[in-house]
Amino acid sequence: MTVIPVDSENDFPRAVIFDMDNTLHDLRRSRMCAADALMAYCGVFGDLHMYSLNKNPPTLIEDAVSLYLGDGVDADFNQCTWLYHTLELACISPFEGIEEMLNELKSAGVLLAVISNADRPDMEKRMAALGYGKYFELIITPETFGVKKPDPLVYHKTLEALGVSPEETVMIGDKKNRDVRPPRELGIKGVHATFGSVDKRDQICAVDSPKEFLALFKKS
Fold it and tell me: Is a pLDDT exceeding 60 seen at residue 59?
């Protein structure tokens, strides 16, 4: 873990930008639970875990369920997709220490934003389920600016909306090729959230918990 220097009177940067899925909450766990329950409902243990965790189009769940049913599972597609979405949302949960981290940053006057590649309806449902909306000045989805990570425009527009410079800003996320390296190229301090990531640990700056993320800013 590398301590990030800050140029302010307190210990924190002016703004922190978060990725959402697998950074603020454990989406993989939610999908595993939803897949387990759906397969139990259908009475067939198949490849739904593989389909739902390894595909990444906008119609992720629909595609995964379609492939699962295509393996010879006798069940109604619409009923299965509804059940999967309902169960995934019901199983959503934060990583340990996330709420305490958000509270401390917010209390310190840090501006908080989220940039997610999830569609806005899904993002809004997850935010509501977690109760996180109160913490963030901005919630950015692909619909907001018409672009998504890692397009540099989404970071530029977010900084402009927050009224901060790259040097005053930190971004944390689980995907190095979306949340860590591209912001660094713009001068934002990128942090790899290994606690939600399947990527190999970033060698420049990585944290294993929300508590470690807060510790990055503590002056020695």
Answer: no
